[in-house]
Amino acid sequence: MVVRQDVEGTPLAGRSVVVVGGGFGGLSAACYLARAGADVEVLEKNEQMGGRASRLEADGFRFDMGPSWYLMPDVFERFFSHFGKEPSDYYELERLDPHYRIFYKDGDRVDVTDDRGEMVELFESIEPGAGEALEDYLDTSETHYEVAMEKFVYEDRPRLRDWVDLDVMRAAPIGLQLVGTMDGYVADYFDDPKLQQIMQYTLVFLGGSPKNTPALYNMMAHVDFNMGVFYPDGGIGAVVDGLVSLGEELGVEFTTDAEVTEVTKRREGFHVETTDGAVYRPEFVVSDADYAHTEQELLPEHERQYDADYWASRTYAPSAFLLYLGVEGDVDPLEHHTLVLPTDWDSHFDDIFEDPAWPDDPAYYACVPSRTDDAVAPEGHSNLFLLVPVAPGLEDTPELRAEYREFVLADLAEHTGVDLRDRIVFEKSFCVDDFAARYNATQGTALGLAHTLRQTALLRPPHRSKAVSGLYFTGGFTTPGIGVPMCIIGGEHTAGALVDDVR
């Protein structure tokens, strides 16, 4: 049933919008635009909504193919509240404890738990004085989070003049954190390399390294330690279903298997064409597809904001080597979220950002949702995927994948004691070429543009096209950036820009 109240009084009543791409940014924008009265249709290239948050189902196993961490619950609560809803109207959450487990390759093991006092004691046991330093770090992180979210994330500031106002000046001490990088910032608090890694690992969610990510992102420690890590019943795919259900209630139309091949502005409006020859003629277009793909492949040259040299000069977030595995038996002692880290991970980041190569001493992630959710694997089996961040654009062949598979499974067995090799009953790999083919991802990036100092805030590509009136962008290339919560907020910003322009 379509629920659309006060349509006549909404700014977009009677206006039509096509959203290209059904990732979180596109789904969010679609909901906000429909609430504003627009007739919205979402065209998704693949067989399901969600973009990189796709699901893989086979042989009784169900995998989240992309995002698997539910962080920043306040963002989801805020989003649904704008529509008079709550997350629990669409899915249930379970708080995870421990948040995650770390296996260091020198034999140490650490659990990051929900008990702050316990974490203070842990840090103090590793480095004298580090317990008090952790308290100070987390208090500062909380302050930075609150100010950054209020002044720089929830409030879109797309132009330089938007940064020259009293609110920004008052928040200047927070903004000055941009001038440093995370490695230097964390080193001011902790000397022990393992503690530094704990405080920096969330940079993987931002697509950066400690050496190239602004220190402002220390606020992610507040997200990690203070706000908690959750699991939505059914996985991140259940959150996708929630946004789609909300969109349907608002009147949004969703079409899958509709790959867009052309977007161009004509006198009577936009011309949007798909591979099957279907043509849509909306008044506005919002692209949640890969920004560079949209500009270079979908738009004619005279409607592009940037040339090929611009996109070639960007720093892209890592791609990933992924193994989706269905396994007989349990996989103890792996937790729902597990990290396997070398004591020195600089070489891995160099293999991603400096001299692209398959990492020979990787830091990697294992996700075992069957530890929490019985429905994702048949009885007596475990569901897990392994993720190794790799350089975007890395050479990706079947032979390289097969060799690296053996290496990673052996590394997991050596450093966690979990040997999967004779128990695998289902297996699928996914890597650089798959990201490029399935998601039209530039250089096969798994995330979008990295959050480097030169690619943060208004230095990211804009929501409004500077070349074509009525064309807008959302997703991990724009502000506020990478990650499910940021893309949901980005969809709000994009919809707000369109509404403001119409007004």
Automatic annotation (TrEMBL):
Residues 25-498 form the Amine oxidase domain. The keyword Oxidoreductase applies. It comes from Halomarina ordinaria. The keyword Glycosyltransferase does not apply. SUPFAM superfamilies: FAD/NAD(P)-binding domain. PANTHER family: PHYTOENE DESATURASE (PTHR43734). NCBIfam families: crtI_fam (TIGR02734). It comes from the Archaea. This is Phytoene desaturase family protein. GO terms for biological process: carotenoid biosynthetic process.
